[in-house]
């Protein structure tokens, strides 16, 4: 028998051609391609399938010495009017077929028995491929599906033959998972989405007779999900935590392990001061630094090409949704200007020539994945619960801009989102608001009069601004 890896590769190639055939039929039913076009393409696919099949059979159907086993053609005779093809199998039995093509199909079935991979992981990959070629999904959607599969589906479950997985197995797995992880409802629905993707595909392609996921109701598992709303302290970093990040980055710049040109560290320092998104941070160019402001109008995105992640420069920010409106501007403060001058001096000293501000020593722009990994590990090393760049955006809004009395309209414009988004998702009381409020109240305590004196400075600590305040700020 031929090499198992070769057999699997041949089988996968045949499955790919089957998917192409199904896709052609869909195109025909939608009127995208005419009958003649379908017929020609189907003939081509059939020829490819036959060539793949014959290659596997001829490589596998050999004697112990590696010689090809003979295939006999029995033509009709007066004593035996039957016309057929036959060959002897490795176990000594003979198999027959009316046509040569029919015999090759029987041999193919024989040599692939037990080889076909019906594991949940393989079905997931097939389902994802079909989704990619038929549903025009975004690259990020496919990437999220892959991440979700690895996160929610254990290796043990992924290796199971999907034909042997019933609703009881899935229910037990689901119950153990929710009781162990207590996921957020959003995570639970992502998990269900992966199950639906896998088992819907298997059912549609007649791999399984029924879909066991349909038997899994959400209500029993919601009891074990974490339904609590995230508290502000779960979303933002305190001013003290921000200072810890700054100090750690500056400390690392003094160590040989990281070096003084610690570009991901510089990127984090810049993000702390500006609240830029990760993609915007990576795409920022020196030409975007104006006399009094920073022009934020592009982002770094990525797509999958031939199984590899490829990064590209997109001329829109996230909130512009593919239609450039020339981005937004953020004020160029003295602190930000000095930070940029420091980066430029380091690049000049190292002979780095790049249009991008945040670039590696070879001049290539930093990548989102690398920066996010750096920031997550740094925050985790300090024991922080929030470890993402988004927390820096929200912390700037809640810890700096909001207490300064900057209007919600201006805050939204600086961060690049709507007023409603800023109010609903970005404007929280500072993490240490209780201590600050107590100090303010204590400072007004007049021990002689027993009354409050005029406050020296009032800082608003409301979690959400009132509609009246919002309206007044818009005029």
Automatic annotation (TrEMBL):
GO molecular function, one term: DNA binding
Family the UniProt entry places it in: Belongs to the 'phage' integrase family.
The protein's name in its UniProt record: Tyrosine-type recombinase/integrase
Domain Tyr recombinase, residue spans: 232-439
GO BP terms, alphabetized: DNA integration; DNA recombination
A Pfam family reported for this protein in Swiss-Prot or TrEMBL: Phage_integrase
Domain of life of the native organism: Bacteria
Xref: InterPro entries: DNA_brk_join_enz, Integrase-like_cat_sf, Integrase_catalytic, Integrase_recombinase_N, Tyrosine_recombinase_XerCD
Keywords associated with the record: DNA recombination, DNA-binding
Region (Disordered) residue spans: 68-87
């Amino acid at each position: 028998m031929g090499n198992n890896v070769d057999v699997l590769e041949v089988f996968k190639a045949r499955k790919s051609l089957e998917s192409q055939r199904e896709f052609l039929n869909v195109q025909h039913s939608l009127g995208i391609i005419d009958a003649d076009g379908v017929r020609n393409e189907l003939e081509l696919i059939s020829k490819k399938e036959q060539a793949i099949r014959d290659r596997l059979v001829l490589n596998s159907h050999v004697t112990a010495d590696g010689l090809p086993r003979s295939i006999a053609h029995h033509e009709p005779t007066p004593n035996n009017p039957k016309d057929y093809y036959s060959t002897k199998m490795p176990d000594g039995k003979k198999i027959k077929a009316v046509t040569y093509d029919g015999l090759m199909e029987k041999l193919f079935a024989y040599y692939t028995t037990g080889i076909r991979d019906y594991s949940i992981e393989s079905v997931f990959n097939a389902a994802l491929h079909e989704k990619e070629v038929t549903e025009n999904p975004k690259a990020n959607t496919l990437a999220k599906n892959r991440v979700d599969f690895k996160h929610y589906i254990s290796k043990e479950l992924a290796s199971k033959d999907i034909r042997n997985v019933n609703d009881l197995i899935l229910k037990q797995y689901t119950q153990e998972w929710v009781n162990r992880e207590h996921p957020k409802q959003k995570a639970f629905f992502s998990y269900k989405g992966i199950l639906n993707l896998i088992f819907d595909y298997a059912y549609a392609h007649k791999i399984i007779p029924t879909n066991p996921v349909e038997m899994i109701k959400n209500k029993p598992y919601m009891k074990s999900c974490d339904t609590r709303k995230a508290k502000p302290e779960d979303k933002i970093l305190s001013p003290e935590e921000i200072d810890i990040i700054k100090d750690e980055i500056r400390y690392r710049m003094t160590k040989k392990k990281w070096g003084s040109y610690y570009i991901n560290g510089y990127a984090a320092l810049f993000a702390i001061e500006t609240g830029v998104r990760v993609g915007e941070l990576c795409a920022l160019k020196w030409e975007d630094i104006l006399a009094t402001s920073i022009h934020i109008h592009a982002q770094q995105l990525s797509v999958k090409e031939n199984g590899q992640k490829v990064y590209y420069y997109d001329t829109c920010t996230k909130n512009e949704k593919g239609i450039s409106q020339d981005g937004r501007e953020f004020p160029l403060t003295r602190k930000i200007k000095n930070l940029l001058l420091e980066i430029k001096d380091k690049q000049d000293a190292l002979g780095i020539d790049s249009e991008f501000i945040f670039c590696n020593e070879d001049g290539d722009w930093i990548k989102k994945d690398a920066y996010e990994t750096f920031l997550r590990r740094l925050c985790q090393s300090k024991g922080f619960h929030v470890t993402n760049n988004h927390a820096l955006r929200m912390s700037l809004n809640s810890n700096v801009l909001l207490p300064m009395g900057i209007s919600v309209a201006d805050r939204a414009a600086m961060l690049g989102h709507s007023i409603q988004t800023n109010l609903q998702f970005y404007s929280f009381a500072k993490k240490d608001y209780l201590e600050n409020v107590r100090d303010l109240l204590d400072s007004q305590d007049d021990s002689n009069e027993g009354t409050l004196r005029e406050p020296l400075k009032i800082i608003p600590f409301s979690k959400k601004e009132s509609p009246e305040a919002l309206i007044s700020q818009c005029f």
